[in-house]
Amino acid sequence: MDVRDEVVDVLRGVGFEDGELRDDRHLSRDLDIDSTELVEIVVALEQRFGIAVDADAEGGFTTFGDLVACMTRLLPAATATAGRG
Q1: pTM
Q2: I want to staple 25 with a disulfide (CB 3.0 to 4.6 A). Which of 30, 54, 78, 81 is the partner?
């Protein structure tokens, strides 16, 4: 399973359908995700991938594609850090 599929799987777990989850879909306007729900989704992604996400440092998330891009960016760093332990 690739990163995008994993993110889709997490969002499917909170009630979204695969067809809704396109990279260009706006989180609040198109998917009706409020700030509290976004925090819950980010926590679920952190747990799923074993990473820490600083949403402020990432510049926030506007689209579903932003979430996927962030996870893709952070995973290599998490793997490298774990390998040094």
Answers
A1: 0.83
A2: 30
